[in-house]
Amino acid sequence: MQTLTRHWVEHGFGTPGGVYLLYALKCALYVLGAAFVISLTPGIGGVGDVADWWTEPIVYQKLVVYTLLFEVLGLGCGSGPLTLRFLPPVGGFLFWLRPGTIRLAPWPGRVPLTDGDTRTAVDVLLYAGVLGSAGWLLSRPADGVPVGGSDLGLLDPVAVVPLVLLLGALGLRDKTIFLAARGEQYWLTLLIFFFPYTDMMIGFQLVMLALWWGAATSKLNHHFPYVVAVMMSNSPFVRSRRLKRLMYRDPEHDLRPSWIPRMLAHGGTAVEFGVPFVLVFLGDGGPVTWAALIFMAVFHVHIMSTIPMGVPLEWNIFFVFSLFWLFGAHSEITVYDLQSPALLLLVVPALVLLPALGNLKPHLVSFLPSMRYYAGNWATSAWLMADGVEQRLEDGLTTTSRMPVNQLTTIYDAEVADLMMQKGQAWRSMHAQGRALNGLIARAVDDESAYTVRDGEFVAGAALGWNFGEGHLHNHQLLAAVQQRCGFAPGELRVVVLESQPIHRQRQAYRILDAATGVVEEGHVLVSDMLERQPWPTAGEEYPVHPVGGPGRRKLATEAS
């Protein structure tokens, strides 16, 4: 781990250039596909006339639907080699159209008709219905009612109903698909389609504002400078090794972030607070507005250039387009033109109350609806597998891909595959929560050398068909589903689950789980202790923890709660 994290300083993941080309082509596919699909709208014009019709009101509506479809197919976030998807490079629709795969309901036992963890024909039909209703909505013509200086009109809100209902119903049975569809943004935006034109445009602006401000708020922590340093080390556009080494206090002995990523972190936070404020509340389409537009566009292009490991590239492209469409081409509409307070009854709970709950009680809400993007304050887990467990997982689960290490073995060989998997662990260890996991692993098992350590992200990717940094997808709920199918003996599979930090407390809750016997230990760790550690474990040193019941005591249970 010491060797691999030092290697990360100068080389990041060490990704071959061809992989970056693959993602560039995928982004081009997203953009060209959107232009082509929207151009099929009757009366709008061909692809070659995009400069004439890109400002039409219906264009943004169809782009929202197209992007939702792109993501819910599994083609956007969480796809490709940088998420350890090689053969095949996507999960998504390949997985969710297959009965027998694992599904995780958000509230099993509380919401009727959502019990169980096996995908049925009903789930497959619901998912197929989401795909079909999105495709049908993209094929719909405009209603022909002039709005905003356009004679073309908007989508008929009635046509949006099937997609809204099907995705909502599917989300109650499978939270993974709802998160993959980026429901906190695109599904909510679909609901805004039902408002009159002016309020609808204001609703679009408020969604964007909430995403920026939510992300900025979540970065008011000690974790984010670690994220910046790691992202800069992995950026294919930062070629200077000397510059990369400057991101750390000592690139060999102290891999905590230096003053440079700390400054960049604070600067980025200020940008996400300040520039959107100018756009939403002070924008008038003049020079200040356009300066803010260009500045924010550069901000998102910079994020894309670092190639974040979750690869939310198309998401950032959508943001760039939204900037110029909402605040440039349609700057005549501002939040001060709100006509119906009913819009606030929809957006305030979704954009204010839910993120607030997620920041105060992170175990209750995914980091995506909580709008805690890129902040480094993530729930995560480490899966500790005794000899043969990883292969038994692959053999015992119904899935559409092999475990990542076996995918890699078919491309390279076993030694290189293991090295790359450990490089993934090094990526996690470079972040603050990874340093806590390294210390907690020693409390989970007596002989760490007898276990293979895998990040929960890699397990969720194979077991659920999608992963995007959401630790709630590989916690006790997935462990219970895996155990039901594989029947591991006590001690064969243990999982260290680390919850994210509440905004008002400088600590993170943890649980050590055994697949067969349940909770082994639970308690919390202090953020301040994470910040003092290196990304590699130190021999003979115990990580300071605060178990339930006092120092050194373990809380036992017969099953994971």
Chart the SSEs and their pairings.
Blueprint: H1 2-11, H2 17-39, H3 50-53, H4 57-72, H5 93-96, H6 121-138, H7 157-173, H8 175-180, H9 186-192, H10 197-218, H11 224-234, H12 241-245, E1 248-250, E2 254-257, H13 259-282, H14 287-305, H15 313-329, H16 342-360, E3 380-386, H17 389-396, H18 404-411, H19 414-430, H20 432-444, E4 451-455, H21 456-464, H22 476-486, E5 493-498, E6 507-514, E7 518-526, H23 527-530, E8 546-547
Antiparallel strand pairs: 1-2, 3-4, 3-5, 5-6, 6-7, 7-8
Helix pairs in contact: 1-11, 1-19, 2-4, 4-6, 4-9, 6-7, 10-13, 10-15, 10-16, 11-13, 13-14, 14-15, 18-19, 19-20
Count of distinct strands: 8
User: Per DSSP, what share of the residues sits in E-state strands of 2 or more residues?
Assistant: 5-15%
- Tally of domains: 3
Task: State the low-pLDDT regions, or none.
Answer: 550-561
Helix content range of the residues, please?
40-55%
Shape: globular
Structural class: alpha+beta
Mean pLDDT: 94
Rg from alpha-carbon coordinates: 23 Å
**Terminal CA distance:** 32 Å
Largest sheet: 6 strands, antiparallel
Number of continuous helical runs? 23
Question: Which strand order does the major sheet show?
Answer: 4-3-5-6-7-8
Tell me about this structure.
The protein has helices spanning 2-11, 17-39, 50-53, 57-72, 93-96, 121-138, 157-173, 175-180, 186-192, 197-218, 224-234, 241-245, 259-282, 287-305, 313-329, 342-360, 389-396, 404-411, 414-430, 432-444, 456-464, 476-486, 527-530; strands at residues 248-250, 254-257, 380-386, 451-455, 493-498, 507-514, 518-526, 546-547. 47% of the residues are buried. It starts with a helix and ends in a 14-residue tail after the last strand. It has 561 residues and is α+β, with helices and mostly antiparallel strands. It contains 23 helices and eight strands. It has three domains: 19-194, no CATH class; 197-352, no CATH class; 380-547, no CATH class. Helix 1 packs across helix 11, helix 4 (57-72) packs antiparallel against helix 9 (186-192) and helix 14 runs antiparallel to helix 15.
